[in-house]
Amino acid sequence: MTNACRHVADRWLLLGALAVTWAAAAPAWALDALVEKKVFSLSTYSTVGGVTLRNVRVGYETYGRLNGAKDNVIFIAHMFLGTSHAAGRYKSNDAEPGYWDAIIGPGKPIDTERYFVVSADSLAHTNARDPNVVTTGPLSIDPDSGRPYGTRFPLIALRDHVAVHKALLDSLGIRRVHAVAGWSMGAMQAYDWAAAYPGYVQRVVAVGGSAQPDAYAIGWLNIWAQPVLLDARWKQGNYAAGEEPEEGLAASIRALVQTVAHHGWIDGVFGNKWAAEGKDPATAMDHGFAWESQLAAFGQQFGPLLDANSYLLNLKAIQTFVVGRADSVEAGLAKIKAPVLVVGTPTDVLVIEPTLKRDVEILRRNGLKVRYVPLEGPMGHLEGRFGIARAGDAIREFLLQ
Q: What is the edge-to-edge ordering of all strands in the sheet holding 73-77?
């Protein structure tokens, strides 16, 4: 395992450093104490597809305090490639806090002096080789065989992530949640929480994620999968421990970043700069541009943290998602009874505004209180990570209603 595995947050430093001139500055205060990673276990869990898993474990984190009524809970569902590390730091010298630290903490929009915030790793977590992730998935030992599940691990749905996390909250004695919030894949789960547990979820904050992906997004996820499937080490998912198709995973990450970062931002930061001084890309095949070099660095950082089987399982779960597991997005959204705040980015080319506004219009026709807030910024889909502080006032106001 490379230095990329030093810490779960390090992978975002490259983009974070590049984003700092564009994104709003985050508040200076931090969580009162260092974050503790905890582990939740289920003796058995039956997936949406009807497969029973034993000894299921997922990691989780909490911020703030649970009140006596146990109803001040906000659950944060994480994005693809994200983890339960939504805020704070594990160690005082960590290079970077959790991904939504700009809005989670004392006095922040998701105020940990008011709310008890919970975030958890998902089942079959994509980042299964990250030392700070706890998950049951293809790399886990099947208690029936004593060997890693590998390709025998079942297909999963985003509803499986939701159901396992609901069991976690049940174990904490939580009676209802004040809100479920998330970005990208996390927003999709937030919708599904509200559809699955309409009396339990009081509010939904969906940032840059839809109730059903459109064909354009489905196609991009297929493209992300191809480098893994074409890697000679893939072996139809039957690769040995320590022999992951890391080159395919790295190439997939390059394609992913190229998709989620808006072209205007990329060109504004990098333009046609060369990767190395004196090495004109026109003079040799191994001379490249600065953005190409940056993409390679992203792949090198993420690749060693990922499990290929888990990666593909989650891509499939996103592609096939329909809120409420209904026959149509309209039928699924009809199950939601809670007010909804939808935050979208006009420059997002992966989850485009018209798809988000489709969900908003359906919810309005259903008589729900719903608000759409544009998150202006040049970074495209990544605004949900690096520009989220600019939606802070809208999120704070929504949670207080």
A: 38-46, 52-63, 116-120, 73-77, 177-183, 204-207, 340-344, 370-374
Cβ proximity of 182 and 79 under 8 Å: yes
What pLDDT is attached to residue 303?
86
Cβ partners under 8 Å of residue 396, min gap 6:
109, 110, 111
Low-confidence ranges of the chain (pLDDT < 70): 1-32
Give me the pLDDT at residue 16, please: 54
Question: Radius of gyration of the chain from Cα atoms?
Answer: 20
- Contact between 288 and 254 (Cβ < 8 Å): no
Q: Please give the domain boundaries of the chain with CATH numbers for all domains.
A: 3-400 (3.40.50.1820)
Q: Which of 164, 137, 157 is nearest to 310 (CA)?
A: 137
Contacting residues for 374 by C-beta, under 8 A, at least 6 apart = 343, 344, 345, 346, 353
State how far the Cα of 378 lies from the Cα of 393, in Å rounded to an integer.
Answer: 20
CA distance 360 to 358: 5
From 133, 154, 91, 89, select the one nearest 1 (Cα to Cα): 133
Q: Among all residues, which ones are annotated catalytic?
A: 184, 348, 381
Listed residue (147, 104, 131) closest to 11, CA to CA: 131
- By three-state DSSP, how is residue 42 classified? strand
* Length of the chain counted residue by residue: 401
- From residue 94, alpha-carbon distances to 7, 89, 310, 330 in Å are 8, 6, 27, 44
- DSSP state letters, 197-231: -TTTB--EEEES--SS--HHHHHHHHHHHHHHHHS
Residue 17 has a pLDDT of: 52
The three-state secondary structure class of 389 is helix
106: buried, middle or exposed (CB in 10 Å: 19+, 13-18, 0-12)? middle
The identity of residue 174, as a single letter, is I
Count Cβ neighbours within 10 Å for each residue of 116-149 and write b for 16 or more, e otherwise: bbbbbbbbbbbbbbbebbbbbbbbbebeeeeebb
